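anyone seen this seq b4? input:
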Amino acid sequence: MKQIRVLIADDHTLFREGLSALLAREPDISVVGEATNSLEALRMAKALQPDVMLLDIRMPGTSGLEVLHRIREEGPKIKVLVLSGFFEEELLVEAFEHGAKGYLQKITTHAELVKAVRATHAGEVWAEPKVLSQVLDSLLEKVNAPHLALSEMHSELTDREKEVVQRVTQGQTNKEIATDLGISEKTVKSHLSNVFNKLNIGRRLQLLLYRIADRTK
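predicted toks r here
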């Protein structure tokens, strides 16, 4: 069985060792190293070239976002799963903008941790359902705002664009939305693209939101 090689970077010893012990239970996952700060994380990532890196976004030294940026340059094949002690939408957006493949809160379960590692290794974009729900709620709030900031220089959304986003936030897939509205899936995607552009949503977060809408049930 091919092992998923994981590097853990977190400055809290107990938490880091706990992650390592949990992942060691999985027959297809192997922890190849543990880093205690940002500089050590960069050095070990370059030397070990793990498949997946679990990266605490707030460690002493270089910021986690800078670590993400440098890993994208020096180890583009490494898939980084960001670890955070609490949810911040802006942090989530920035993490994906800097090349993260997933975002995981530290209060997650063992099962979610393993799912996240396997999903990011497979090339999927990962975020927990609770995090996705918060992102979608924020998106819906922006969509329903009476007026968008003039500084953003975007036109307001059309009624159909608002309707598509409303359905996405309710859990409908592109296929379901297309069927209900009597339009093609391609048209649904076009509406979403217009929404993201008008709201100035970053490319990485766009990919995450597209994956939500494109999932199969």
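The longest strand covers residues 29-35. Residues 174 and 214 are 6 Å apart (CA to CA). kinda curious what u guys think
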